[in-house]
User: What shape does this take?
Amino acid sequence: MTLALHVTGLKKAFGPTKIIRGVELQVARGERHAVIGPNGAGKSTLFHLISGRLPSDAGQILLHGQDITGLAPHDIFNRGLARSFQVTSLFPRLSVFENLRAAAMRTHGCGHAFWRRLEGFAPLRRRAEEVLSLLGLERRRDVLAGALAYADQRALEIGVTIAGGAETILLDEPTAGMSRAETERAVTLIRRVSEGRTLVMIEHDLGVVFGLADTISVLAEGRVIASGPPDQVRGDPAVRTAYLGAAAETLA
Amino acid sequence: MSAPAQTALARPQSGAALRAMLPWVLAALAALILPHVVPGGFGLSLLCRMGIAIVFALSFNMLLGQGGMLDFGHAVFLGLGGFLAMHAMKLADAGWWIPLPALPLVGAAGGLAVAILAGWVSTRRAGTAFAMITLGVAELVVAVVLLLPSVFGGEEGLSGDRSSGPPLLGVDFGTQIQAYYLIAAWAWAAALLMWLYTRTPLGRLANAIRDNPERVGFLGYDAARIRLLVFSLSGLFAGIAGGLAALNDEIVTAGNMSPEASSAVLVMTFIGGVGTFWGPVIGAVLITFLSVALSTVTDAWQLYSGLLFVAMVVWAPGGISGIILAHAPVVRAGFAGRLAPAYAAMLPGFFLALAGTLGLAELGFRLQSVRNGASPRPVFGMALDPQGVLPWVVAAILLLAGAWLLRRAAPAAREAWQEASVMAQVQ
Assistant: This one.
């Protein structure tokens, strides 16, 4: 079986500080995979390396068996991997609808056309409408993204990530800063948008992680120290000492 | 979906398309009628300049307002487009069959070619680095133009005669009115094309790289490639403006692509407003009018347009179109009446400050010429001596008093505006 994502020996240092120290990560096609770990473990850096935002120092990243190491972000996207950002990264002066439409343009045959009307791309418009209703933002359709409430911006962040229909999706702390109710709404949304796709997400909220993930990888000090089904990871003694600590007591 | 539902969906769309085209129909009508309303040859040549400036400013805003790219050397594309068009005009003089109406196409080709070359370097970077590269490229191009007098005519530039080419359908474009209609037709068509472009995938991608170039990369697009394409198209339209300038002025010099020309288009675009498609049109019309009308009245007109620019940057960064756009919902909601008194209360201070500023500027400009031995020209019909103390004191007092009144009236105006805009939103 080809893995959706296969990371081997990945390393990244910023100056003398080694952030990623040889990460091994295997994500099976179609699974929901959570990456957890204490602050500073290198989770976001790992996402930056996989998505091409940062170049790695060593190691290899395979996407469905294809080597994507060292490719530019747009090349990686065009091979079927999309990502969201921990700090919301939208097009603030475009409307919600235009954000979604821009996000889906690449995969709906728009190219760089300046001789065809955007309105003429009917499947593109339908896709943007579809994601809009998936997000439950129909009533915010023509509001500028920069003027949205925080939770709505976070939802749109997910919408922009999935609008292009990428097979593999990386979500970087999709529920960060959300209230209980907002988190529940976000979890429902993530469950729906990851249907039939491969999802890798960084998440701090362990309730969300254990409720959503098929597999959990624990990142600590730049290495994956455990990876497996939630029950196995929960019982792993290395994980308990390295990360879960007091939280493990309450979960057990 | 059933057939009736489809037609029901199609109908509002065609209605919207008609509404969207209405301004273009009105603009065409205005362009047809204007020469018969505006008096004399002076007015006609002013209209021609406005048409050229509109195309130029709109092409500039493809970069600044729509794509977030500040080009400090945009006049280079106008200038080189103009030079190429002038060479074509000379070839027409020499007997080649190049009809005059096609000259802007030659300009477009010149602008496009140079923009691709310059953009190949500058569009690799965004933001400040991009702006600085455009500045360097502009200096470089002007230097090269002056270094090659055999191609660009050196300091004198190149001149030609637009009427000596082959007449088209009996029209030789020798008269200003014929040139006007040619320029108006081209300006209208170029503006329409630039507007249609804003509704294409590339047009929307330009907005996306303006707002957030990094995210565009994670949506499958190379931001640098988008910048290069947008930059090239913008150069093409600036080249059209250059072709129009060549056939209007019948001369092209290095001055057409000078840093002054590049900053002029920045000023008019910004004053008109970069946030809307039509803002630069207002700026082009206004600044062209001021530069032509004021320059006949005062030597200080550049100072005034500079002051207007600074005032806009500080108090109304959305430009004139931004002010209109912000007030439209308030007026539509019927709250204009609430704003009017508070705004009117600012007028005395405004006019006093304006009078003081004008007085100081005019006195200053006259002081220099009087020292050079000229007899003092009257200031607004008043025989004032710029070497005396009293006129300066009066002007300074006017300015200070005006500023004080403005400061006093401003909070009430701001409050009225906030109240009215909130109420308009609630409605």
